Amino acid sequence: MATRKSIDDLIAKTNTYLAEAGEQLDITNRNGYPVDANYSEVQGKLDAMELEIAKLMDSANAQQREQLHRLHLKTSQCLNDMILVHNDLSGE
After folding, report:
1. DSSP H helical segments within the chain, as ranges?
2. Environment class of residue 10 by beta-carbon count within 10 Å: exposed (0-12), middle (13-18) or buried (19+)?
3. Measured CA distances, 65 to 44, 53, 60 (Å)
4. How many Å apart are CA 40 and CA 82, to the nearest integer?
5. What is the spatial distance between Cα 57 and Cα 37, in angstroms, rounded to a whole number?
6. Within 13 Å, how many C-alpha atoms sit on residue 22's CB side?
7. Residues 9-26: pLDDT tens digits?
8. What secondary structure letter does DSSP report for 59?
9. Which ranges of the chain have pLDDT less than 70?
10. What is the DSSP letter of 52?
């Protein structure tokens, strides 16, 4: 079973990465800059969090699964936004 601490740590870590991603999206959208290493790094961190969320869901109770599901939705939406911005800027 997933511990409360492991869930809380994952949520905190993911929220930190989501904040970083939001900053990168703002910078990129505002300035029209091409995607740089920082943008790609944050996108990679969010991808890794998606995997960790999925792993932890397997051992979570119902309440924890609900928390993790909401976190997964936020993370997926942010990743989708990052992909769309990248595609817009690269002309794909």
Report:
1. 4-31, 37-57, 62-90
2. buried
3. 23, 9, 6
4. 9
5. 30
6. 8
7. 999 999 999 999 999 999
8. T
9. 90-92
10. H
